[in-house]
């Protein structure tokens, strides 16, 4: 699974030199025969092989890789997956749960899917204020189990769904989607997600956390990069030529 994600990144970013946001919905991946079977796909070769996912429902982009989907644990937790999307793609923030709250994942059972468990939680006034900000972000991933395989029902025979709504920070209302593929396309097209990708690469390049004082420089880097195509290459070039780098002063030794 790790090799799949690394090869996918190389294909999108280095070989095809596509915009970074296409990491979220590019219709291609790389699989071994064993991983292809695990994903419910017919193996196309005996080794690590490139797969076209144009006609593979639900599969496509980093969020549908097993290496990422396992972040939800064995129960494919809506909480953990939703927080991952909120924190890593939308740069959103929520409060930590009170110390008295049991955060142990609730297992699904006959008649109750992980989405059903989430909906029960969202119906509680004491929980919904925070959980509504991130759990619905994972609704489109419900058909992927804790190890990344795709199915229409869970191990208890419960029917799974992939429709939902996504609320992007700064927007007045959520946007509905019907499939996980639509969710991936919404994320890839989101200006907020594109800005987040810039923030992450800039932070890595600078080797330190970014703060409010960096916002103006990062915004200019993002503007220049997007104008040049939004590729990794254009982003790195914009970082190198930015005031953030050219006027960067090393911190004084303590």
The tally of helices reads: 11
How much helix is in the residues? Answer: 40-55%
Question: Low-confidence segments, ≥5 residues, pLDDT <50?
Answer: none
Number of domains: 2
How many strands appear in the DSSP assignment? 4
- Biggest sheet architecture: 2 strands, antiparallel
Radius of gyration: 20 Å
Major sheet: arrangement of strands? 1-2
The structure class reads mainly alpha
Shape: globular
Beta-strand percentage range: 5-15%
What is the straight-line distance between the termini?
42 Å
Order of helices and strands: HEHEHHHHEEHHHHH
- Average pLDDT confidence is 92
Model description:
It is globular and about 60 Å long. A hairpin with an 8-residue loop joins strand 3 and strand 4. With 254 residues, the chain is mainly alpha-helical. The chain starts with a helix and ends in an 8-residue tail after the last helix. A two-stranded antiparallel sheet has the order 1-2. It has a two-stranded antiparallel sheet with strand order 3-4. It has two domains: 189 residues, no CATH class; 56 residues. Helix 9 packs across helix 10. The chain contains eleven helices and four strands; from the N terminus they run αβαβααααββααααα.
Question: What structural keywords apply?
Answer:
254 residues, mainly alpha, two-stranded antiparallel ribbon, 11 helices, 41% helix, 6% strand
What's this, in brief?
The protein is 41% helix and 6% strand. The chain is mainly alpha-helical. The strands form 2 sheets. It has a two-stranded antiparallel sheet with strand order 1-2. It has a two-stranded antiparallel sheet with strand order 3-4.
